[in-house]
Structure formats: C-alpha cells, structure tokens
Design brief:
By secondary structure, the chain is α/β, with parallel strands linked by helices. The protein is built from nine helices and 18 strands. An eight-stranded mixed sheet has the order 6-7-5-13-14-15-12-16, with helices on both faces. Strands 1, 2, 9, 10, 11, 17 and 18 form a seven-stranded mixed sheet that branches. The longest helix is centred in the first third of the chain and has 21 residues. It is globular and about 65 Å long. It starts with 5 loop residues before the first strand and ends in a 22-residue tail after the last helix. It binds flavin-adenine dinucleotide.
C-alpha cells in the first residue's frame, strides 16, 4: 500500500549524528526526510568545526573505544567510496604527567580491542618530538592509525551521499512535537506538517531548547573556543608526519598539527559558560586567545609570538557525565532523542547512526548508559 506523502522516518538535525542516521536508514531501504534549520554542518552546529579528532583512547572506558574502532573503519570505507580525502592519519599522541593511570588503562583496553599503539618514554618523546616542550610529561602513548576527520566537509559528504541513497533533504525548523503514544506528524515553523512513522531529533545543543521540560536541565551547552596558530614560513616541524595530534589531559588542552595549511590547532577542553547555540557570539575572547598563546609558548617554544590565523567558537552539547543520550521520548513512543555528544561525539557518527537505525527498525536493545533515565541534572564529567 502506498504511504502517500508519509516518510518511514523524519530525521531532524543534519549534524554528524542526524546525517549518519538518515544515511543508515536509507541504506536499509527506508523513505527518509532529513531536515535542518540551517544546513548540514552549519556554522552554528557542533559538527561545524574544521577538524575533529578520531582517537581510540578513552582510558578504561572500553565501550567508547570499541565504538571508535568501528567508526574509524566506517569513516575510512565511506571516504574511500566517495573518493574524498577527509581523514588524515596523523597518529594521536597521549601525553601523561605524574598520574599516568589514563594511558595505562587505555593501553590495556587497546590490547583487548586490537588498537595498534606504541608506548614512549620521555627519552623517546624528546628524540621524536623535539618541537614539543615536555616539562611535566613522563610518558607517551601513540595511537598509530588514528587521526583527524575534516568535520564540516565530512558531514556535508554524508548528507550528500544520503541524498544519493534517496533521502530527501530540506531546510526547515521543526517545532517541539506534542502528543502521546505514537504521533503522526511534526510541524515546521511555517506551519507545514511532516508525516512519518518515526521522528529522530538529532538536534545537538538545541535539544535543550526544543524539549525544555525534559532536556532543558539535562543537556548543558558550553561555549568552546578554538585557535589556529600560524607556523613559520617553510617550517615543517608542526605538520604531519613530524607532529601528530596530541592530548595532555592535565592541561585540559589538546591540538592538531598544521593540516591543509590552517595552522597549529589549539583547543581548550574545559567546559566554558552555558550558551544559546542560535545567538552566542562566534568571536573568540581575548582571554581565550591569551590562554592559548601562553600554552603555545610553553609547549611549542619555537612558536612563541606566532600569529593567530583563524579562530572558531562552537558549543559542546554535554550530558551530565558525557555519555550520549539515545532514547525514546518518555511520552511519544516514536520520537527519539539522539545527542549528548559531549565534546567527543563526532568520531562516533557512523556507529551512532547504525545503532539508532537498529533500535528503530529492529527493536534492538538499548545501552543503559545512553538512556534518558540515566541522565542527571547536575554536571559531573566522567567520559573524556
Ligand atoms: C570545539 C569542539 C571540539 C570538538 N572536538 C571533538 C573531537 O576532537 N572529536 C570528537 O569526536 N568530537 C568532538 N567534538 C564533539 C562533536 O563535534 C559533537 O559531539 C558532534 O558534532 C555533535 O553532533 P550532533 O549531530 O549531535 O549536533 P550538531 O552538529 O549541533 O547538529 C545538530 C543540528 O540540528 C539542527 N537543528 C537544531 N534544532 C533544529 C530544529 N528545531 N529543526 C531543524 N533542525 C534543527 C542544527 O541546525 C544542527 O545542524 C567537539 C565539539 C566542539 C564544539
């Protein structure tokens, strides 16, 4: 029987989670609408950055390591099929201070999950990375095959490929759905009704605005600033293969080598103030720039005085502890929340999309850690 203008699924939000969900649903032969208020990987979205790390390390947290391993394979397959170079295998270097428990645990998980890595002593670090200021660093752990996804362009590529698979895409803002049980339609801001069997709200930080009663206190959008420092002319020490992507949790700062000539990327992982994703200023602050400068002087002494050549301001969409939120609406059984990427979600896009698809189409069991019931209203970050 024809379903007329009714979709099997409407996916609202074309960030990395929504784009991959629409893609997987279409691959399963479903008729899918993908709607976004501003566009796939738009400048206000969390998925909009130039680049995102894909690392396997989550300390002792094996669930996300396994998901990252699956996702890296999927991203690579996808880019190979699309003929796009949107992954750079820079390697990801974890740096540990006195407390090296996180890298020790990560190494144990890597051994179980088949992640290829190398452990590096301070001596080896000094020899290999003379451009890094290693004060306070006692150990390194290098993920050899991990690296960087070119985020904004990768999301655009997934949304485009989803359309090739039959997904209908449109620019539209969807209002908060109302009703109980299985709802039949949602409404755009121009009053048009969109009918579907299932509705997936993959709205990043907007989930808190769109569902204020349920998620207003459970999604914590935080302002995050990113800086790119210009490298000296003709100097290759800050580009791969000389410099990998690196993280030093004690500094709460991480960065990437000079990719596609954008400069050395420095980002602060500490949560900034609560922001509204529609209206927050996208101009980086003087204090943020000063902090990034101080950090660069300390960790990359040869870049003392280097100019900031580009900045970005984005928001994390944190849950209380950093676990994703992937669950049904408590009253509307065919309405799904997909979000809570919490500053680490991008890499997992392909696996999130596959997981959501299996939950909707196959009634697959849900992971407890992603449930709405597990989401508290006080922040206590546990997933890094
Ligand atoms: C600075 C920064 C650095 C990060 N670094 C990393 C990293 O290195 N590695 C990593 O894995 N992750 C990283 N992350 C996290 C990752 O980028 C996010 O978790 C991920 O992009 C979230 O994707 P999303 O699809 O849930 O949300 P978004 O990308 O925000 O997409 C949500 C979409 O929903 C749309 N929308 C909202 N409301 C509506 C509505 N009512 N109707 C229609 N459309 C709507 C929006 O326009 C938007 O396009 C980082 C995030 C930031 C901000």
């Amino acid at each position: 029987m024809s379903k007329g203008n009714r979709y099997d699924a409407a996916v609202i939000g074309a960030g990395v989670f929504g784009a991959w969900t629409a893609w997987h649903l279409a691959r399963r032969g479903k008729r899918v609408l993908l709607a976004d208020a501003y566009g796939p990987g738009n400048a206000r979205a969390s998925s909009a950055g130039e680049s995102r790390i894909i690392r396997m390390g989550y300390g002792a947290d094996e669930l996300y390591t396994r998901w990252a391993v699956m996702s890296l394979a999927r991203w690579k397959e996808f880019f190979a099929a699309a003929g796009e170079r949107l992954f750079y295998g820079t390697g990801v270097l974890w740096l540990a201070g006195k407390d090296d428990s996180r890298v020790r645990h990560a190494a144990e998980v890597f051994a179980r999950c088949g992640v290829v890595f190398e452990e590096l002593s301070t001596k080896e670090l000094e020899k290999r990375y003379p451009q890094i200021g290693l004060q306070g660093i006692m150990k390194g752990l290098l993920e050899l095959h991990s690296g960087v996804l070119m985020a904004r362009r990768a999301v655009a590529a997934v949304a485009e490929d989803a359309q090739r698979l039959g997904v209908e895409y449109r620019v539209a803002q969807i209002a908060e759905p109302r009703g109980a049980g299985a709802i039949s339609a949602v409404t755009t801001n121009s009053g048009e009704r969109i009918k579907a069997d299932a509705f997936v709200f993959a709205c990043g930080a907007w989930l808190a605005k769109l569902f204020p009663e349920i998620l207003g206190a459970r999604i914590f959008p935080s302002r995050q600033e990113v800086f790119f420092f210009g490298v000296p002319p003709g100097d290759t020490r800050f580009a791969p293969p000389a410099l990998p992507t690196w993280l030093f949790q004690e500094d709460e700062i991480y960065g990437m080598p000079d990719l596609e000539s954008r400069g050395l990327k420095i980002a602060v992982d500490r949560h900034g103030e609560r922001v509204d994703p529609d209206t927050q200023s996208r101009l980086a602050s003087a204090e943020g720039a000063e902090e990034a400068r101080r950090f660069v002087e300390q960790r990359f002494p040869a870049l003392r005085g280097a100019p900031i050549v580009e900045t970005r301001v984005c928001q994390y969409e944190n849950t209380w502890n950093g676990d994703f939120l992937i669950d049904r609406h408590p009253e509307m059984e065919n309405v799904w929340f997909v979000g809570g990427g919490s500053g680490h979600g991008f890499k997992h896009g392909p696996t999130v999309g596959e997981y959501v698809t299996a939950r909707i189409l196959d009634g697959a069991d849900g992971e407890k850690r992603f449930s709405l019931a597990s989401k508290e209203t006080v922040q206590k970050r546990a997933v890094f």
